[in-house]
Design goal:
By secondary structure, the protein is of the alpha+beta class. It has three helices and three strands, in the order βββααα. The chain is rod-shaped, with a radius of gyration of 31 Å.
Length: about 100
Amino acid sequence: MQYQVLVQSYSENKFIASVVGIPNSTVEGGTREEAIALAKAALESQLASGELVTIEVGKEHSQQQTDPWLKHMGIFASDPTFDDFLAEVAAYRQQVSEEEVFE
């Protein structure tokens, strides 16, 4: 696997290297190469006693974000005129279908 390492030069013989996104992985070396090698060793040490995993947070909300129509489900459940509305829609669709046949 590949990791990004931030290397900063503080003087001619002081380099600080940190593995990006990994806590406790900041090291100091006398050269750029030494600092990178020490950062690699620090990361390998941490990975030897643990692992990086991917988790999903907020799964309940992700369904609503992927389907914005879910928040509208059931809004007409208690509307006494909704069945009449659906009947009017069905009649209109039937009328349009019949007109298309005759054209």
